[in-house]
Amino acid sequence: MKRGHTDGFILYATLSLLILIAVMVGTALVISNINVRSANDNVRVSQVQALAEGGLDEAVSKVWYDIWPASTPTSYYRVSDYKKNLVTQGWGVNTSASYGPFNLSGVGNYQYKITRLADTTDQATHFLVESTGVQTGGTSRKITQDIYVGGGLFNGISYAVLTNNANCVMCHASVQSTQALATGNPVSSQTPFRRAKFATLESLQTRPSEEDSVLAGTFYTRGGWVDGNGNNVASSSGFKTTQATGDGNITTPMTTAGSAKNFSVFDCSNATQCAQTSNQNFYTNYPTQDKIGQQPFNGKWPDGELPDSFPLPVADTDGNRNIDDTEWNNAVSTSTSQEDPDNPPGAITATMKQISPTGTLGTNNFGAVQAGQTAGTGYTGNLVLDGTQTPINVNGTVYVNGDVIIRGKIKGNGKIIARGNVYVVGDVKYACGNDNHECNGTDWATVSDPDSDVPKFALSAVGNISLGDFETPRYGDWSDPNFLETENSQSATIKTGSNVGQSVTKGGQTSTVPGMAWREATLFNRLEMKKFMLARKNGQSYVPRLYKFANNSPDLVFWNDPTDEGTDNYASSSYRRIDADCATDVNQCPKGTFTENITGQKITSTAAQLQQFLAAAAVYTVAPKTNWVGRSQLKKMYLDSTETTSRSKGAFRFDGLLYSSNATFALAKPGVSNACLRNVSDNGGCSKTNGSLEIRGSLMSADTGILSSGPWGNGNKNVTPSFSVYHDDRLSSFVKLRNTQRAGLYRADWSLER
């Protein structure tokens, strides 16, 4: 190439490169400017959106904090008071108010509008908030949000056992975390266990000379600690804990000799001292919700929240302790429409028998069940669930408008809520793995893994829950399905073995005495009567909850001896019977006056006042309320599930959470000869449960009647716990209940309008 041509080419290439560089630089500048403008736009959008969100937050203050007077406790608000205050302050349905604009210097302004809409199906107060943010320069955004004020969360699920009153349940008990079930991770100071929590909302009664119980955690009671005669107890050598004072974890195993120590009782009647102390191992006179809202607590619990009462598992919007059709249908509809995120619609797939509300089980009992059946949320009728061959699979929340009978293995993550009663007639145990083996220590070691194979199951009843043989009177023939509680004396004779026909004699009794469930029910009735009479004395109202044993029971029985757990004589003067017809016919009420000793004072009721008491009460039946299954059938189903040669001897067991705002009755028959109707030589003759009950989950029940005397007898000390609870704290967040009387505020996700 010639030099002139070469120079020309170099010049051309140089100019081309310069042009390309210029174009690239120009393009970069354009892109940079676009990015700057985009970034500025994003900043403006974010700022204006933040302005609008500020309006939402301010609206919360208007519809929540500003509604309450300054004297209202900061931790507990009642729905009824909230609605009264709304009306007083002019917030009727379909009323609205606008606020703003409010200027923020150099940023912009916001304004918002609040409209009270009609109450939602669960009776929650419903507000719609529309908030607009405007930035200096004109950029604006409008966002909306639904705000609800309704029943607040019930926070009692974090307890291993929660009940109103505890007496014989603590005689031979062991309560600890399910961490104790896991293999390969023993408790120590390096690998501490979570503490278990046991609480009574009213009273704790124990037998200081006879206890043999250990709690790996903390005990709470709203009342004091008393013995069987009502005398105060300061300590007991048989009631112990492995929790060191001031330590919120457990570092010592129960199995180590001497590891359990006496409780250090901490009395919260000194509010100032109580407010500053946590991680004690025994609290008496623990504060109520109202007291927590006052000084010196100022809304802060000393050692975790303890609820005041037990809400029904379905929202009781009118507070009458009964779930009517409207309340039940609301719960079902909000679940099926997925408007209740805590209770998504679910299904049960199992070997089962579905019985219509007007149908009967028939005489075939468990022989009537069919494999591969499914029942979904809103099922109406009664269910018999049998997981002995194929596990019962429960997922989501299943509302059953009827009773439930259940036994066998469980899989899935689900909840069953029965409108009637629940009867656990056989062991209910978690199934793990593809082979559906009973979940073992290796499985329990994985529960902290979100993909753990260990199920989560909760069983709730609007009515009552019964486990085991609740039908047989004390010293009665548990092996005879027709030998049932009659609420009166009946002959008890040996039916099998070498002593057929021989009368049963125990403690001078030649006839049976009240059964555990019946006796406990009468005690609960008496306590409810005291609450009603005390409320009346103080000019307050109270809706009592009463129990009768069977649907054809002629009487409601009130046990009136405050110094005893009950007499072994149906005819004793310690029992008082009131005709159930007293509620509608004053002539059926006791003549004269009815006197009850309450806190050292005698309060007298006339016949008319007793009628008011019964008329105001919600009455629940322990045995099946309708005739869809006979009482003898139910007892036979227990015998065929538990007292059978195919079952190994061991504790009657339930895996999961049991919840009832009424009563839970659990009876494990003793395993000693003097409590059996057949000689030990006659093929054992005693219960396969060996007098023991085990729960791997938790027990939540307003009234708890549990008798599990264990394998001990003849005055000998128990060698193993007869009532064992392994608390599964996974269920604390799994089961969420609403206390419809306690107000709480909830906000839906906001949506962008423009």
Question: What key attributes describe this structure?
Answer:
10 helices, 19% helix, alpha/beta, 7-stranded parallel beta barrel, disordered N terminus, single chain
Task: Compose a concise summary of this entry.
Strand 23 (422-432) and strand 24 form a beta hairpin. This protein is an alpha/beta fold and 754 residues long. The relative contact order is 0.12.
| Anisotropy-based shape | globular
Provide the residue-averaged pLDDT. Answer: 83
Counted by DSSP, the helix tally is: 10
> What's the quaternary structure here?
single chain
Please give the number of β-strands. 37
The helix content, as a percent range, equals 10-25%
Class by alpha and beta content: alpha/beta
Let me know the largest β-sheet.
Answer: 7 strands, parallel, barrel
Structure description:
It is a single chain. The chain is an alpha/beta fold and 754 residues long. The strands form six sheets. Strands 20-21-23-26-33-25-22 form a seven-stranded parallel barrel. Strands 1, 2, 3, 4, 36 and 37 form a six-stranded antiparallel beta sheet that branches. It has a two-stranded antiparallel sheet with strand order 7-13. It starts with a helix and ends with a strand.
SSE diagram, text form:
Blueprint: H1 3-63, H2 79-88, E1 96-104, E2 108-117, E3 125-135, E4 140-153, E5 161-166, E6 173-177, E7 193-194, E8 196-205, E9 213-215, E10 217-221, E11 225-226, E12 239-241, E13 249-250, E14 261-262, E15 265-267, H3 271-275, E16 282-284, H4 289-292, H5 325-336, E17 347-355, E18 370-376, E19 379-380, E20 382-401, E21 404-411, E22 413-418, E23 422-432, E24 437-438, H6 441-444, E25 456-461, E26 465-468, H7 516-537, E27 545-548, E28 555-559, E29 575-579, E30 593-598, E31 601-606, H8 607-616, E32 618-621, H9 631-641, E33 652-668, E34 693-708, E35 723-727, H10 731-734, E36 738-747, E37 751-752
Parallel strand pairs: 5-8, 5-34, 6-9, 6-35, 8-10, 8-11, 9-12, 10-16, 15-16, 19-20, 20-21, 20-22, 21-23, 22-25, 23-26, 25-33, 26-33, 27-32, 33-34, 34-35
Antiparallel strand pairs: 1-2, 2-3, 3-4, 4-36, 4-37, 7-13, 12-14, 17-18, 17-20, 23-24, 28-29, 30-31
